[in-house]
């Protein structure tokens, strides 16, 4: 049986806002922040950010909202300011934060509680699985 | 002799896997159930000896930025380097390309009305490198050439599952009309369900994952009943990487497929991780 | 009130035109027969007052390189700058963008299975600037917003005339479903027949040009009987810029069109130059 | 009546080779040359080329064939070496050459003869044109 989306929201735009998804509205709002994070693929740029965060953010013309979210290490605020997680992950890397730290920060859990929550999803694996064929 | 599609290799590509390999954590209790999926795949590959891998994956902010974000990009480079992605993974080995076959694919796809972006230079990220680190651990150099296809899973609108399956099928037609004698491996990387961002971070959906794993081989069209947005809701915001699997499945062609190997494990990092190997029955 | 497509403005965009404007050569015997095509267009525009221009053109090695060459690219930037192209043209005025309408277009095109590349930053070259220098000579700032669509006419495979017409028609559908009240001008720039490179440099084809001019309004499908390669043979290697005209014609919709103005003159630089203005009948 | 291509070549690949058209084979061969020409959008790079042509070409790893074609200002050889006219035009700009100079160089005509040839195309404009409607 085909699983159906949990909500009755069928309008794509509404669904995007509800999840939320990184679409044109967010991409427009977040361009500068994402451009800065994209620059962090290069170590010299990561070092420059660490050496003078204010100057580096100014160079990329972060909006005040974006600058505040970065200063406060507030991931949800970065997302609201148009940050995309694929680029933000590079900023998180500078702070030594992995995806589970990010998860904890965003959900308000401790990292241990977040990790424990991840494990509980294993209980939902359907038991009625097609048996695995042995390697021929 | 005709080029031959010898199989389809699907796997998650979570960056954390690269960290585990770097640390040698393959046999720890946390990682063992995931790495356990790969010995059968390695044995099969040792036997099947593919020459070329046609790999569907998505860029994670290394090669593409929002200034020029392609829906579908096809590599046509003589070689593909990995590079620093900014979060501490080792820089992985380069891949040799196959420009002649890339351009054959590109010609065929454009004639089939796929509006691809052609990349004569292209960095590949962990989404391409980690699957081969898993498949060929410890090799000096990759034993096969690469043709990378990147699908936009970053910025909406994403291509629909239906369009991705159609892309894969068009790749299949292109491979069918190629005059070489290569042994071609199709790869799809990413997923399964996971969400990194927002208040729903940590979300997974084993039901949807199982639906995908159970239908991919025999009934891939079943996966095209959802919009990309619905997939994001069902599979999590990064779970949309299943689009890479759907396109790769299409590239195997509409032939009966046998499941050589399957593994599914929760959690790896924030992700429901899977590996799957299919071959023409 | 609904957004309204008020007309279609088509013109050659030869860099030499920019030189002639810079030097004030509009009334010289060489240039006069070309510039004579524009007074009726300017008068019509003064009356029609478009708010937004949806412009189909091709990049000439300013914004795109062979590392990432899109078949179809759509701008979604807040503004679009021109820049030094390397051969002495002045740097032209920037255009204000219309991101909301751009994203509406992009959403609609991807849903219609056009695999576009989305550009949140994009330089526009003489192919966009010169048509507006011709249409609004001497203005301080452009009186309308820009949505640029770039079609690959540089590197084969090019999209076929058929695919370009389909792209245009999909743009038309998108504009039909837009909730704003803008007065929209459609533009196609480039051509007509010319060839800059190789032993056939200097080639033109008035017969093919006339075929295009005579059929564009009433029977655009007639232009889709050729492959892009056949167009290159018929119109010259740069004459394939007619693809921009074909797509723009598609964006006007399948409605009866009246020809407000037409001019055709040989030679301007190495080119058979034309201007054409169509409006819904 | 729809004009038909002048040759009977219908296979796209053959037609590409016959014209010739800038396709994958040429694009692969010409990447370095085109990358150098693309850099000439910036004045600083044009100046650097003029200051030391050898060093600039070396920096872009031109193939020997490409280097020779550039040194000899041989446009047809640049095309054979995979140069694309849209990028080559920027190199021509450095030399002060316009598209009619290029045309003359490629066809072996004098510039005046090339210009005169261009004018003759006007004679081929079909006389039976749809009459122009006056501006309403
Ligand atoms: Fe991923
Ligand atoms: Fe042009």
Automatic annotation (TrEMBL), chains A, D:
Gene3D superfamilies: Dioxygenase LigAB, LigA subunit. Coiled coil: none annotated. Its EC number is 1.13.11.8. InterPro entries: LigA_sf, Xdiol_dOase_LigA. GO terms for molecular function: protocatechuate 4,5-dioxygenase activity. Keywords: Dioxygenase, Oxidoreductase. It comes from Novosphingobium taihuense. The keyword Oxidoreductase applies. It comes from the Bacteria. This is Protocatechuate 4,5-dioxygenase alpha chain. Residues 33-118 form the Extradiol ring-cleavage dioxygenase LigAB LigA subunit domain. The keyword DNA-binding does not apply.
Automatic annotation (TrEMBL), chains B, C:
Its EC number is 1.13.11.8. Pfam families: LigB. It is an enzyme of class 1 (oxidoreductase). Gene3D superfamilies: LigB-like. Residues 8-271 form the Extradiol ring-cleavage dioxygenase class III enzyme subunit B domain. One of its GO terms (molecular function) is ferrous iron binding. Keywords: Dioxygenase, Oxidoreductase. InterPro entries: Xdiol_dOase_suB. NCBIfam families: PRK13364.1 (NF009901), PRK13365.1 (NF009902). This is Protocatechuate 4,5-dioxygenase beta chain. The lineage of its organism: Bacteria, Pseudomonadati, Pseudomonadota, Alphaproteobacteria, Sphingomonadales.
